[in-house]
Amino acid sequence: MIFLYLLAAAAISAQILFIYQVVGNYRYVLRKFDKNHTAYRPRTALIIPCKGIDTAFDRNIRSFYELDYKDYEIIFVTESSEDSAYGRLLALKEEFKNLTKAFDIRVLVAGKAQQGSQKLHNLLYACGNADKDVKIFAFADSDACVRINWLNEIVYPLRKDWHGVTGGYRWYVPTRNNFATLALSILNAKVAQLLGVTRFNHAWGGSMAVRVEVFKKLGMEKIWGKSASDDLTLSRASKKAGLRVIFVPACYVASYEKIGFLNLLEFARRQFLITRITAPGTWWLGLLSSLYPLLGIWGFAAIALYLYNKAFDGWYIFLLVSLLFLAGQFLCAVLRQKMFFRIFPDDWPKLKVAAIADIAGNLFWSWFMLFCVCSSMFGRIIKWRGVKYKLKSPTEVVRL
Questions:
Q1: Opening angle at CA 205, ends 204 and 206, nearest 5
Q2: Which of 63, 64, 76, 226 makes the best surface tag, with the fewest CB within 10 Å?
Q3: Which 3 state secondary structure label does DSSP give 304?
Q4: Is 86 helix (H, G, I), strand (E, B) or coil?
Q5: Quick one: DSSP state of residue 197?
Q6: Going from the N-terminus, what domains does the chain have, and what CATH number goes with each?
Q7: Using an 8 Å Cβ cutoff, are 166 and 157 in contact?
Q8: How far is CA 367 from the centre of its chain?
Q9: Which of 203, 195, 206 is nearest to 255 (CA)?
Q10: 281-305 tens-digit pLDDT
């Protein structure tokens, strides 16, 4: 019994620390999400790789033109001029060119990657063709809709030399309330909630920036030339060099999406598989984070039931521990949905169903998250935007 009491005490302490971190992240985001710093705005190349037409493509692309930043160029890059995105980007350039403060707008064709992933090949091609005087590389995905202050905020922390990489994150806004799309939004929200003032931060490639000097010093041209992941490899190299990865709440972006069930499973497995190969420590942390609340709820409930059947007087203590973990799950769901209501009030009508599903079904989503993480435990082959890759190491991928 002494062991069980010590186990309960350790679990309670861990749960309190976890809730403290989640609440701290929540408060940090609400303090920082509505900033608009303009004191540090060096010349910047904004690079957006494109493949195909994403949901809300025109709206997303327009948001890059409307950024309130005086000294930046926009570089869109595709693999081929035959890509459906290429022609649409040229048309949107003519439509939106008078909306922007950008000093230049280009739509580039990178050609097929000979090694490494196509996305990273496109990014490197754009970096190599950026204006020679740019001091910052900023990266965004074509499925991201950024706010007008996004570039100001993603760049601002880089004024400090010890800040290596800055990053925001996405919030999936369902355009259809089917199971898979709601699941995508909720699972993504669980990950987003873990970002804050923590050493475990990783940049996300759809909302990310780095000083050109640091990019070159870290040898990212060589690393990206053979890798599958842009953000995890850049974060890894930055931390290895003793630089910090800074999460910027003002750089949360909306991604308007709808998805089918099989595509959801493929997407989730791909994301976790890339993480397992590229950043195994982060993958293990994700696995433990998924397993931990479930063990807390069901493990202590099972102990309480066992002790009750054996007529031990202290059985209710373990039931209370189980209920503490359950309450923590509900609190986390409420906090993350409340947080994104504050950040994206205009999108709240589209987020309501996902918010209700997240809070009401939080136990189910915990099991589903664990299933998705476990689906990536084996194998090294992924399919990304129609192309298959084999991940051989954290910095080496082969196109199949």
A1: 95
A2: 226
A3: helix
A4: helix
A5: S
A6: 37-176+198-258 (3.90.550.10)
A7: yes
A8: 20
A9: 206
A10: 999 999 999 999 999 999 999 999 9
